[in-house]
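The authors assume throughout that readers already know how a fold can be written as discrete tokens. Each protein is reduced to its one-letter sequence and a matching series of backbone shape codes. I therefore recommend that a typical entry be quoted early in the introduction. For illustration, here is how one protein appears when written out as sequence plus structure tokens:
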Amino acid sequence: MTADKTYYDVLGVDRNATADEIKQAYRKLARIWHPKPGPDAEAKMKEINEAYGVLGDPTKRNQYDEKIRPAQTSSNGTKNYYAILGVKFGATQDEIRTAYLNLLSNCRDAYELANINEAYLVLSDPRKRKQYDKKLRHAQPKPQPSSNGTKNYYAILGVKFGATQNQINAAYRNRLSNCRDEYERADINEAYSVLGDPLKRAAYDMFYTVIFRDAY
């Protein structure tokens, strides 16, 4: 299973799927893959069973949901209301309202509900949203090139050298959700294409410790 692939993707269900929907999806996939011989089928069934073992257990599912939840704060602790509602920076009021109502209908806990309402109160008010957007822009980490112009992919994604893959994945999604221009988006995608690939990242890290040795 790849870093960006979740257990929900494995079972082919939405992240807000009910327990019955998850069970039905699991049984459907098991009927398809269990009878098939060969290592590919065995690997697929192992992946399916692993996913259901977590999503089929309420406690494990809640812990897993917390783990894969997109980064909702900036590097200085400012809450990212766009990430909380699951919309892009610059989303229209209709998109924000639709996302808000959808999240409300599928909310499972009080803490999450409080964050959703807090985000909507700001983003649905033009004056508050304008002030918040300005604050959020200042909270975003700025890319730091080396003295010879080599790009610092860790700085571009706003993570520390040695960050876990989950931290990199979350930072990438968060940066994209708040991207304001194509040039910045290109840098973010370029950084993730390297740091999101274990082999490329290993090669880059060797290079990084030399080029950015002062920060390392």
Notes: The two ends are 31 Å apart (CA to CA). Confidence is low (pLDDT under 50) at residues 142-148.
